[in-house]
Each structure stands twice: as C-alpha cells, then as structure tokens.
Amino acid sequence: MSRLPSFAIAFSTLILSVTFSAGPPQTRTPAFEVASVKPNRSGDLRARMEIQPGGRFTATNVSLRMLIANAYQLFNYQIAKAPDWVEKDRWDVAAKTEEGTIRPPAARSPGVPNDTQILLQALIEDRFKLKAHKETRELAVYSLVVIKGKPKMKLSANQTPPASQENADIPRPYWGGGIPHGNVMQGPSNIHATGITTAELARSLSLALGRRVLDRTMLKGLYDISLEWTPDISQPMDIYDPTSPFPRYAGAASIYTAIEEGLGLRLVSAKGPVEVLVIDSVQAPTEN
User: Fold this and answer.
1) In the chain, domain spans
2) Beta strands at 183-187 and 56-63: parallel, antiparallel or unpaired
3) What is the pLDDT of residues 139-153, one digit of tens each?
4) pTM for the full predicted model
5) What is the C-alpha separation between 151 and 63, in angstroms, rounded?
C-alpha cells in the first residue's frame, strides 16, 4: 500500500499497517553496507526520515520508537514496555547500501515490509541490540460507526482502486498540488485524502488518536476526506504539545466533533485485541 502520510515524521510512523509479518524470504542479507547512528541533542521538535537516491536512507532527530514503528510497521501504541529513553532520546541515522537495492515504496500488500524497512530492522537489531517479542493484548480501542442517517463523506469521482491504476509503482509526490488518488496527507490536526476506503480512514485516525480504530461503518467505495480539528489532551502528548511547529486550526472543533459533524461518523469506545511488540532488551548505541 502506498498511502503514506505527507508530513515528515513528527509523532509516529510513515506506515499505516498494523501487522508484524516479516514478508517473503529475502534472497540477500538484509543489512546496510555502511551506517552511522549519532545522538541528536538539538532540542528541535521536527523529525524526518527519507529514502534518497543511490541506496541511501537518512533519519534526522528521530526517536528509537519512531525507527521501530517505521521498520516493523507499527503504530506507537503497539510498542509496549519500552524504557523512557526509547521515546525521549533523539538520533541521526545515515545509512547506505548498494545503489539500486532500495526500490521506491510502491503499492504492496499490508504487512509486507519494503526494502528500507527490512534493512532498518537489521540496523536496529545490530546497533540498538533490540530483542523483542509480540503478543496480543486486550486494550482500549475505538469503533468507527455511522451516525443514524447517511454519512456526510463525499464519494470520490474516481472509484478505481489505486493499486490497480496504471503506473501504480511510480512514487507519488506528497507536498504541493493536489493529493494523488489513493493517498493521505496527514498532520497532527488534519487529514486530507483522495480516493481512500473507510478502513484506510480508520488507520489514519489510529495514527492521530494513538489508539486502534476499527472500521465498523460497513461502507463501501472510495471517499475524499477533508478533516481539520484542534488537538487536545486526549491525543498523544507529542501531538497535543502546544509548542509543536505544525499549524493549528483556530476555532476548529475537537477531533471527535469534527468526525461527527464533518463526516457523519462517530467514535465509540470499546475493548479489543491489539497486537503489540514487547521490548525484552535494548541498548543505546555507542556514538560512531
């Protein structure tokens, strides 16, 4: 799936999948040829990860939690029992492998890591000595349901599944201009999307709320979404943080009210099974 949030990683992950599958067997050793991991003590709130031409991966001012969430296709709330420094300490990562090894992210099955994620997993396990296991826990979740009557969401004029579109493997731009069909542009106080399912909307809401959101709308088709809200203390602290550099929408409703009034949907609190990654041991790397 090629629906990546547009913002440089600031509070969670680039990936909107919630499984732990390691994907098909690899024919090569999954490791960067050269990698540097250094502490970032700038105090800057901004963080960024990007894949660059020539087999390069860079991450600036990221926490280990962000790296783990990206590499193992997790939401932050799926990473359990982590030491405080995993969230608080920030790192700069510069890594390189043979040119052509890292293919651009493209349409793919949820749960199958892309080339960069496979390499990043190996780097985390090597440099941070990560040992972890997965388990399923009964946690607080939200059910996304339709309010009595018809939903207010707009069906997309293009109902072609994005993965089946011509040139689906070509990387799509996420900054500037319109939002490509089948993509989400998401920040800490907004979601804008074109041609997505309600299941994909639920994944974006999971990212915004720091809690799993289950799609219980029973709605079919692809939708264009425009949702803006004012972050509040019910959201993860790094989203609510008033010092965040991301824009706020003055006078906008809470996310819960915005979902009801703007989309005709409602979030209902519930309990449900959530797969989590439990960290058994991890170490801060020596500076290199």
Assistant:
1) 137-274
2) unpaired
3) 999 999 999 877 899
4) 0.71
5) 38
